[in-house]
Design a protein that fits this description.
By secondary structure, this protein is an alpha/beta fold. It has a single domain, classed as Rossmann fold. It is built from ten helices and seven strands. It has helices spanning 2-45, 55-58, 69-78, 97-112, 127-132, 151-163, 203-213, 229-241, 269-277, 282-288; strands at residues 63-66, 116-120, 137-142, 167-171, 186-192, 214-224, 298-303. The radius of gyration is 19 Å and the shape is globular. It binds S-adenosylmethionine. The site of S-adenosylmethionine has 19 residues, from strand 3.
Length: 307
């Protein structure tokens, strides 16, 4: 009886979540966008044989797909100098999603050799300032008001602002057309674990602003921690609506078993707990255990057309 009740509860929760995610998608892309999402979903279903691996990173092909284990090992093997230890983790969880997003964006910088870049939502990350600050013009924008930060996070944020040596910092919410960020001026705009925090109703301006600040032919590289197909497709659609060139359809297949080859990179709750919340916070662990499942990150590489 208990088991039936449990499975019924789970089905209801899944259906409610699906409904909520469809509402978010509608808010993000509008009705026309929803129709297009259905179209690209159908195209993706018909393209089951398309394989992907790290090739599409090496050849600079446009991409929109889950990061895989092979991506991470390839990136870490090729760019050991760009790997980032999770700062708050006593375990040094170098394989977390932020670590993957960081080495992915570093790879794009190394590959594209941009002259002027913008990082959205750096938090207290100093990685890019240290690695690339001397070679190129590095801008960042962060409003520092997100996710109800506690006092120590705010202190770390302000400390990083003092310690970065090469950065032009704009305090603000990207998507508000900040005048400090000039039109058609950046070669690359990137972010790591930021875009999932942007509210659905702000998404269209968020990507239009990105389009505005990029030079024609400029690129975006993002690591977006979304683990829901509907929301992933809405993200793809809103980027396309802003005018970016993307691959023909979002490839959001998730592979979990070894025999499927190149499994999707997951961050499990243990990593979230050790990496970001602190090993001694038993209270946090209790509340985390209620969050079902794991999460993955979508790697995005899209371009503003030349003309
Ligand atoms: C989870 S943290 C990630 C920090 C950093 N990218 C890293 O890898 O450590 C998200 C950051 O994004 C910032 N953020 C969220 N939405 C933003 C927006 N629209 N414009 C600027 N910053 C934003 C938050 O203030 C926060 O610093």
């Amino acid at each position: 009886m208990d088991r039936t009740a449990n499975s019924l509860t789970r089905s209801i929760i899944t259906a409610l979540k699906g409904f909520k995610n469809n509402l978010f998608a509608l808010q993000t892309v509008g009705l026309g966008g929803l129709l297009n999402m259905a179209r690209t979903r159908a195209a993706a279903l018909g393209a089951k044989n398309v394989e992907y691996d790290v090739q599409d990173m090496r050849e600079g092909k446009l991409m929109f797909r889950y990061a895989t284990v092979n991506d991470l090992t390839w990136l870490m093997a090729n760019y050991p100098q760009y790997c980032r230890e999770e700062r708050d983790s006593p375990k040094g969880a170098t394989w977390g999603l932020k670590a993957a997003g960081t080495v992915y964006c570093s790879h794009r910088i190394a590959e594209l050799k941009p002259k002027k870049i913008l990082e959205i939502g750096p938090g207290w990350n100093r990685h890019f300032d240290t690695l690339f600050g001397e070679q190129l013009e590095y801008w960042m924008i962060d409003d520092a008001t997100d996710i109800g930060w506690d006092k120590s996070s705010r202190e770390k944020f302000e400390q990083a602002l003092k310690e970065r040596k090469h950065t032009h910092f704009v305090r603000g919410f990207f998507g508000g057309y900040a005048k400090e960020l000039a039109d058609n001026s950046f070669d690359l705009v990137f972010s790591i674990s930021v875009i999932e925090h942007v509210p659905a109703e702000a998404k269209q301006d968020f990507y239009k602003d990105m389009f505005r600040v990029l030079k024609p032919g400029g690129a975006i590289a993002h690591s977006i921690d979304i683990f829901d197909e509907t929301l992933g497709r809405a993200e793809f659609e809103v980027i396309r609506q802003a005018g970016f060139e993307l691959p023909p359809y979002p490839d959001l297949r998730v592979r979990v078993r070894a025999h499927e080859g190149n499994p999707t990179l997951f961050e499990d709750l243990g990593t979230v707990f050790h990496g970001y919340l602190g090993i001694n916070r038993k209270d946090k662990w209790q509340s985390l255990k209620d969050i079902p499942g794991h999460t993955g990150t979508i790697f995005v590489y899209a371009r503003k057309p030349l003309a």
